[in-house]
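Person: At home tonight, work slowly through the protein below, taking as long as you need, and write a paragraph about the fold.
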Amino acid sequence: MLENCRSAKERWGGVNDIIDRWLHERQQLLVCYCDLSGTQVFDENNVAHQEQVKRFCQILVDYVSAGHFEVYEQLIKEGQDFDDKEALKAAAELYTVIDNTTESLIDFNDKYQETDDLSELVKDLSHIGQNLEPRFTAEDQMIEVLHTSHKDLVA
């Protein structure tokens, strides 16, 4: 029984590390977003503006990818392993909210990785902000229902 507790703690402790890294990446994304949003006029000939946009796009794609291909999978696996049907149902609804924002985030990346035209960037950043807020809220709730709620069971 002690071995089972240790192995559960090691297993789900690893999820803590994954979530921590991902939330740190979210923080970097927000800092970069705020830096960009603070600029009201972008000059496509300004190398610093171009680099700032490319950096934001890279962090955005990394963040979205880590969520879809690592974090959400781990969280759902945890809910399944604890046979938490209620949490899995809530997570499915939350995932729908998250998934509804993914396309516009990827479209933003695709647009600004393909062009140096920054004339619509202020408008597009506003749209991105409107997508990030509900996404972050849903992600936080998903962590709460699928991970934090089981924390005491593996302590």
